[in-house]
Specification:
alpha+beta; eight-stranded mixed beta sheet; 14 helices; 19 strands; 38% helix; binds flavin-adenine dinucleotide; binds 3,4-dihydroxybenzoic acid
């Protein structure tokens, strides 16, 4: 087979890039290791920046999003029984959008299928060849049959555990990493939200987050030990612990119910530099990971897609390599700022095993500053709603 851009990974980055390129008549083939149902079953992000929403609009995939999303003008930060609000609208003029990653992915799959876009599921043994030449190609197997795609470019949108980053020789890239000594246990429940906006809570028992998907679907998280498994946490144990980690007046309002999904995610900060090797471009989680506090993962993947899509457009429409040549530099400049925000917010909100009394006092001082200082609130709001592309 032949195409313009071979896209490895059918998660949100790969699908969005493929659909955006399609609007400009640029062809792509998406290779996904799993089934569509598997990808749609992964419960992940819930908060979208305006930049991501604009990309969905540009891709022609935002109708259901606009009809079903929730617009949040602020968020709450709690510590102990204190709770205060950061007003995004007041400080930045921009809200955030609550619409699940599952729904984003569903809309993108639908659009790709409607346009007869080529997506191969259940692919195995993906290998990227000659990425540092003018004639890259990708081989893979489906149902035991080997296939080959010749292409102009390869987009590595295959997440943290994908093959794309590993294709780049070790002496051509540098990796930066911080692993946090805890994870997040998340549950999804068909219950109404406790509050009209999210609550991020720093409690002496550890972090908790009350999020939502719609008026009868909630997503709750608690900080947990890295050795915990889903089986260690019955629904009852989860709710009991969650209630202890949010202000008492909120705990009273909590409506519990059976979980319909439960999963544990470790927390990690990770960046690869550069995000390009020859004709291979890394995009999204394939190039960087943030801890989930602050909801930057999917949104940072979206800004990569923006830079790469515009670079490729410039190449195909104007014959200019300028955009693709500056892709890594432009994407990384924004990535590092999202890394900083996610690291800062994670450090502020979690309990660390080796935290000293001094460290705890620093958290309280920082939370007090954020509660009472307008400049601090503006800085938080600007980062939360998303820095400009
Ligand atoms: P992925 O979603 O990982 O997609 C990569 C795809 O590539 C997968 O479908 C995978 O099956 C496929 N693949 C892998 N290897 C291969 C291979 N060899 N060949 C072919 N295909 C392959 N982000 C936010 O912005 N807001 C949030 O609120 C938020 N909350 C989160 C909560 C949790 C609990 C977690 C775990 C993450 C959260 N994130 C959030 C992060 C967000 O989900 C990710 O950043 C996002 O999924 C990245 O998209 P991606 O397409 O780059 O990678
Ligand atoms: C969700 C996840 C996050 O990491 C976050 O900061 C906010 C919301 C969510 O899954 O709803």
């Amino acid at each position: 087979m032949k195409t313009n851009v071979a896209i490895i990974g059918g998660g949100p980055s790969g699908l969005l890039l493929s659909q955006l390129l399609h609007t400009r008549g640029i062809e792509s083939i998406v290779l996904e290791r799993k089934t569509k149902d598997y990808v749609l079953g992964r419960i992940r992000a819930g908060v979208l920046e305006q930049g991501m929403v604009s990309l969905m609009e540009e891709a022609g995939c935002a109708d259901r999003l606009h009809a079903e999303c929730f617009v949040h003008d602020g968020t709450f930060v709690a510590y102990g029984d204190e709770m205060f609000r950061i007003d995004f609208k007041e400080h930045t003029g921009t809200p955030v959008i609550v619409y699940g990653q599952t729904e984003v992915t569903r809309d993108l799959y639908e659009a790709r299928e409607k346009a007869d876009g080529q997506i191969e599921f259940n692919v195995e043994d993906v290998v990227i060849h000659n990425a540092d030449s003018d004639a890259p190609y990708v081989t893979y197997t489906v149902d035991g049959q080997e296939r080959r795609i010749d292409c102009d470019f390869v987009a590595g949108c295959d997440g943290f555990h994908g093959v794309s980053r590993k294709t780049i020789p070790a002496d051509k890239l540098r990796e930066y990493e911080k692993v946090y000594p805890f994870g997040w246990l998340g549950i999804l429940s068909e219950t109404p939200p406790i509050n009209h906006e999210l609550i991020y809570s720093n409690s002496e028992r550890g972090f908790a987050l009350a999020s939502m998907r719609n008026e009868n679907l909630c997503r709750y998280y608690i900080q947990c030990s890295l050795s915990d498994t889903e089986e260690d946490w019955s629904d009852e144990a989860f709710w009991e612990e969650f209630k202890k980690r949010i202000p008492a007046d909120q705990a009273e309002k909590l409506i519990t119910g059976p979980s319909i999904e439960k999963s544990i995610a470790p927390l990690r900060s990770f960046v690869t530099e550069p995000m390009r090797w020859g004709r291979l471009f890394l995009c999204g989680d394939a190039a960087h990971i943030v801890p989930p506090t602050g909801a930057k993962g999917l949104n940072t993947a979206a800004s990569d897609v923006h830079y790469l899509y515009n670079g490729l457009r410039d190449y195909y429409e104007n014959g200019s390599s300028k955009g693709i040549d500056s892709y890594s530099e432009k994407a990384l400049a924004r990535v590092w700022k999202a890394e900083r925000f996610s690291w800062w917010f994670s450090s502020l909100m979690h309990r660390y095993p080796d935290q000293t009394e001094f460290d705890l006092k620093m958290q309280v001082a920082e939370l007090e500053y954020l509660r009472s200082n307008e400049a601090a609130q503006r800085a938080m709001a600007e980062n939360y709603v998303g820095l400009p592309y």
